Amino acid sequence: MTLPHGTGHLAGSRPFPAAAHVELGKPQLRANLHKATHTIRNKRARVVEELPDWEQLRLAGSAIKANVMARLPELLVEFEAAATAAGAVVHWARDAAEACEVVTRLVRETGTDEVVKVKSMATQEIELNQALERAGISATETDLAELIVQLADDEPSHILVPAIHYNRSQIRDIFTERMGDAPAGLTDEPRVLAEAARLHLRRKFLSSKVAISGANFAIAETGTLVVLESEGNGRMCLTLPETLISVVGVEKLLPSFSDLEVFLQLLPRSSTGERMNPYTSTWTGVTAGDGPQNVHIVLVDNGRSATLADEVGRQALHCIRCSACLNVCPVYERVGGHAYQSVYPGPIGAILSPQMTGIEANKTLPFASTLCGACYDVCPVRINIPEVLVHLRQAAVDSRRDKPSAERTAMKAMAWVMGDRRRYARALRAARRGTVPLERVLRRRTVRHLPWPMSAWTASRDAPLPAPESFRDWWRRTR
């Protein structure tokens, strides 16, 4: 599989069906996912019902994000000017490789070989940890779930809860085997596990000179970055180190500070099922004697401009990374995030990753959906994910039109048969004559296994046998 240069962790080496088949063979994974996703989505439903104007908030959030996409170039310039005036240094990165090069250089200039990190989808997307490791720099994830995944030498499988595929006993085993300074006799009680992680991270917080973060929002009019989190680790990373480097996707902009009012209501309820998040951190450039004195902001494109150019698909850039769509998706619940082979799993990943990499690198992801529409119903900014999935499915088919295809040949033959009433009637009569003996043998009206190439159909569904009598024949006989 050939990927655009430097796109990072947005595609894998296997098509989705093959990867999903592997994950479906893990019953413990499915049990963990079912429990976690149902717990989160039930909490979300309860707190959303409390707001009589929830739908108006969704409409407002959608309108703000649509406005951002329409004005993105000018808002980026406005943000750079405001952030620079406040003392930050703004860098631009066209792709993942360029973003990693910028961050690595900035860390090296400080003379340190270790950094602490706030949970960030953007840094996972560009595979920053791997780039830093190649440069001899150790990066420690400080979000509890991200720490679990890092210690396990694994990859996140959920946008909000990266370690959702682990249960408590599995986490205890990871800490015992990998943490190094885990206390003796560690149990799987959540409070005990959290305390072990807190003690492990405390030394990192107090000694690290450089922190790396992402941002949930970037305010164009003030140059402010905003991070929402639940554990306090973000606050530690954003205030204690001497140097702060924030990696931000260009779509994270909001025009004005007042726009936060809408999203600070939408995001916590949609992501964690909370009325408000425990920690909201905002910072604008450098303040003398308070917080990091070297603030860098790396604005990353990495396929977002290509996505913006698609009038239907660009709504994927509205995403505020709440993960509500993952928690209601029947496909994600059964296969988990690793099957998508991208840092963005679930329904939003099925529309975002193919656009950022180009459809050829992720052509099976748009088909990783039942099109049930549950993702659209819960999306806080009303991204019509089913619409984009169908749009991208068409793009995937169009990309293969110049290649020989058994399916295309069969469809052309069927079109020729069905294009003439007499040909169609003769074909139906012939099919009925051939299937009457088969029905007597099977004693049912469906076939469960057909030979190639129709085996692609019966791999996931039964094929119905032709009706014993056509409507035209029935009409002629009875009328």
UniProtKB/TrEMBL annotation:
Occurrences of domain LUD (ranges): 78-300
Superkingdom of origin: Bacteria
GO molecular function annotations of the record: 4 iron, 4 sulfur cluster binding; metal ion binding
Pfam families (alphabetical): Fer4_8, LUD_dom, LutB_C
InterPro entries named in the record: 4Fe4S_Fe-S-bd (IPR017896), 4Fe4S_Fe_S_CS (IPR017900), FTHF_cligase-like_sf (IPR024185), Helical_ferredxn (IPR009051), LUD_dom (IPR003741), LutB/LldF (IPR004452), LutB_C (IPR024569), NagB/RpiA_transferase-like (IPR037171)
Annotated ranges, domain Lactate utilization protein B C-terminal: 401-477
Keywords from the UniProt entry: 4Fe-4S, Electron transport, Iron, Iron-sulfur, Metal-binding, Repeat, Transport
Record has Metal-binding as a keyword: yes
GO biological processes: lactate metabolic process
PROSITE patterns (UniProt xref): 4FE4S_FER_1 (PS00198)
Name of the molecule in the record: Iron-sulfur cluster-binding protein
